[in-house]
């Protein structure tokens, strides 16, 4: 028996060596962890890929779409491309490094509260199709919200207001802070730090919840993007699990997944990694925002929120997106059931011209009929693919059909959020398309 096992082990090792010698990718079993690989392993035209990606990113930098960026591509669990371009700022002092940490902005929505919600659905603690007021009690007294379901909310089909500027509630007419809400020194009632020397009242979150609870709801049920409930979800997750939201995400997902820098408030974590700056804030911090969440609403919650606040590296992002691609499995552990992953990542309301999944963004309906200029994201992505973008210039996309994960990280809001050239130049989709076309070309040239 022992000799038989030795023979099997020897055959396995020989197969691995043969794959390496042929420069072929090692295809991983379902639920495995990401591995380093290369374009050559897939017999792709490396020179073409590098030239095309470099051209698009360089054009973006020259047109001030962003001072620097990162691109990561994983195919079938193999990281085949990960490159950094440009600098943190336009003074060209600090080059972008592969382990830099970025403010992920709204990508937080699908990598913060959403995995927790999926897990709670798995456990029967949340139901997508009962009124959300079943769980969020204040909505029971709101006639226009009492019957809204979690499914409608997550698919942006509930008619909720898109955004509320809560910062305005903290400022006087002269632009100074109201001391009942914000102080420049901490005490037991003001511990939520929005920035160095800016402390928000601990119970300000309850004021935010009340305003959201009383906000208007459109009578017309159609696609209307809203991030309001993502400000509520962390508190809901805490109430249901009995564990503070940040700790719950860390212990249930980020730590066991092996995400080394992923989480909230990176400036308090003493990482060796550089944190890429975002905007030179002229609204209330009046300085360059770096290591603190860019989004004002998330900052008023002390930087821990469901709408924004997560920071991480490209490698961290690739891990959790690969977990989604692998139907909730990663490195031999199940985090979310396959049925729940598939339910959340499918289009929910096609009859209402709503492309969204549950929390996840999806390709435009009939996306494959469009040219690159009118598609979202690239026209070639699978209909089952999903992802999300972030206001700071971040973008993540997973395609189970093609077994592709695409990560694009930048700080397009530097030095100001008024800069929208990243969208005008169609940077995200154009880079993504290169890899689909390259794989298609490789298939066509196979004997």
Short description:
With 447 residues, the protein is of the alpha+beta class. It contains 13 helices and 13 strands. The strands form four sheets. It has a six-stranded mixed sheet, with helices on both faces. A three-stranded antiparallel sheet has the order 5-7-6.
Explain the overall architecture.
The protein is α+β, with helices and mostly antiparallel strands. It has a domain at 30-123 and 244-444: DD-peptidase/beta-lactamase superfamily (Beta-lactamase, 3-Layer(aba) Sandwich), CATH 3.40.710.10. The protein has helices at 2-21, 46-62, 108-111, 113-122, 150-154, 204-214, 229-241, 245-257, 296-300, 314-325, 338-344, 421-424, 427-444, and strands spanning 35-36, 68-75, 78-86, 102-103, 182-183, 192-195, 198-200, 311-312, 329-330, 333-334, 386-390, 394-399, 404-410. The strands form four sheets. The protein has a six-stranded mixed sheet with strand order 1-3-2-13-12-11, with helices on both faces. A three-stranded antiparallel sheet has the order 5-7-6. A hairpin with a 2-residue loop joins β9 (329-330) and β10 (333-334). Mean pLDDT is 93; it is low at 1-23.
């Amino acid at each position: 028996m022992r000799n038989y096992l030795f023979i099997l082990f020897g055959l396995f090792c020989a197969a691995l060596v043969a794959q390496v010698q042929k420069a072929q990718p090692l295809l991983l079993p379902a639920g495995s962890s990401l591995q380093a690989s290369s374009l050559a392993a897939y017999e792709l035209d490396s020179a073409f890929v590098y030239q095309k990606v470099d051209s698009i990113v360089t054009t973006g930098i020259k047109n001030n779409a962003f001072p620097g960026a990162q691109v990561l591509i994983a195919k079938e669990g193999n990281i085949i491309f990960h490159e950094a371009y440009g600098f943190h700022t336009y003074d060209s002092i600090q080059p972008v490094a592969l382990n830099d940490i970025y403010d992920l902005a709204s990508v937080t929505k699908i990598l913060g509260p959403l995995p927790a919600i999926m897990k709670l659905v798995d456990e029967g603690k949340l139901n997508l199709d009962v009124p959300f007021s079943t769980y969020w009690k204040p909505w029971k007294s709101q006639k226009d919200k009492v019957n809204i379901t979690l499914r409608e909310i997550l698919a942006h089909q509930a008619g909720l207001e898109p955004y509320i500027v809560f910062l305005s509630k903290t400022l006087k007419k002269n632009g100074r802070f109201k001391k009942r809400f914000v102080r420049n020194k901490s005490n037991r009632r003001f511990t939520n730090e929005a920035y160095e020397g800016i402390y928000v009242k601990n119970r300000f979150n309850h004021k935010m919840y009340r305003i959201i609870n009383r906000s208007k709801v459109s009578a017309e049920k159609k696609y209307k993007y809203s991030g309001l409930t993502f400000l509520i979800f962390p508190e809901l997750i805490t109430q249901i699990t009995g564990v503070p939201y940040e700790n719950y995400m860390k212990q249930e997902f980020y730590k066991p997944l092996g995400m080394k820098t992923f989480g909230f408030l990176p400036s308090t974590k003493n990482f060796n990694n550089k944190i890429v700056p975002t905007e030179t804030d002229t609204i209330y911090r009046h300085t360059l925002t770096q290591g603190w969440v860019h989004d004002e609403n998330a900052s008023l919650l002390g930087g821990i929120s469901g709408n924004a606040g997560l920071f991480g590296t490209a490698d961290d992002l690739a891990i959790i997106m690969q977990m989604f691609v692998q139907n909730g499995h990663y490195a031999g552990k199940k985090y979310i059931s396959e049925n729940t992953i598939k339910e959340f990542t499918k289009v929910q309301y096609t009859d209402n011209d709503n492309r969204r999944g549950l929390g996840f963004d999806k390709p435009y309906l009939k996306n494959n009929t469009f040219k690159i200029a009118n598609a979202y994201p690239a026209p070639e992505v699978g209909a089952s693919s999903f992802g999300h973008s972030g206001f700071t210039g971040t973008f993540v996309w997973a395609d189970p059909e093609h077994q592709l994960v695409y990560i694009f990280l930048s700080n397009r809001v530097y030095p100001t959020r008024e800069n929208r050239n990243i969208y005008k130049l169609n940077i995200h989709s154009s880079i993504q398309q290169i890899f689909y076309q390259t794989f298609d070309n490789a298939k066509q040239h196979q004997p």
